[in-house]
Specification:
228 residues, alpha+beta, Transferase(Phosphotransferase), domain 1, 2 domains, three-stranded antiparallel β-sheet, Prot_kinase_dom, Protein kinase domain-containing protein, Kinase-like_dom_sf
């Protein structure tokens, strides 16, 4: 007889997830509470569910993920009140609670829709720049900068999400923005420029660069001819 055991997402206390999983990343799940206009990001914890007896057993490797959200919690605390950053409504033992942005992310929007008017593109570009100015002022190197992490609210304004891999530099220092792995503010800005290019061209573009010695050569980057 085939096995009836199933792998399911679970909460930090070992209980089952209530709600719909609408996204899954390297470090967590996004759960949509269909009874409200919120989503919750939880660590990527799984368990084995046996429908025959209703038992739920957490997986052994869950300890790899249990503390992954602590860095994000501090990042959102530093950025509280910044309009271009996703509104973190609550932090609790299970995860982070956010407003639900039903318009989705900019990557899907660009893929599924005709090009937006240039005036709309300019609004998004300035909002993105505002977001990263705010992050750098609060000594946060964002790292994971991509169209998929730029949500669109009900008014089609940008909301920056995902600080799972960010670097939080000491607030009481006034030194250059560079972390212990050699990641710098300049690399953050390179990836911001990739996003701006993608919006302008209306086509996703990304380049890999994690350290200054990986900086792409100019002739490896796409042309800007024909862009406003």
């Amino acid at each position: 007889m085939a096995s009836t055991l199933m792998t399911v997402a679970i909460l930090a206390d070992g209980s089952s997830v209530k709600g719909q999983i609408i996204a899954a990343g390297m470090d967590g799940y996004i759960i949509h509470d269909t009874t409200s206009s919120t989503v919750m990001k939880i660590p990527k914890l799984t368990g084995t569910y046996n429908p025959l007896d209703g038992s739920l057993k957490p997986d052994h490797d869950n300890n790899m993920y249990t503390n992954d959200l602590s860095r994000e919690k501090e990042a959102y605390q530093r950025l509280q009140g910044i309009l271009v950053v996703a509104n973190c409504l609550d932090t609790n033992t299970h995860g982070l609670v956010f407003e639900f942005y039903k318009n989705g992310d900019l990557e899907d929007y660009i893929r599924d829709n005709p090009p937006a008017p240039w005036s709309q593109k300019v609004n998004w570009i300035f909002q993105i720049l505002d977001a990263f100015i705010a992050c750098h002022k609060r000594r946060i190197l964002v790292f994971d900068i991509a169209l998929r992490n730029l949500m669109l609210d009900d008014d089609m304004n940008i909301k920056l999400i995902d600080f799972a891999n960010c670097s939080l530099l000491p607030l009481d220092e006034n030194t250059e923005l560079v972390d212990e792995d050699g990641y710098t503010a300049e690399i953050d800005l390179l990836h911001v420029i990739n996003v701006i290019y993608s919006i302008s061209r209306w086509d996703k573009f990304q380049t890999d660069c994690l350290k200054m010695d990986q900086w792409p050569a100019a002739d490896s980057l796409p042309s800007t001819l024909g862009l406003p």
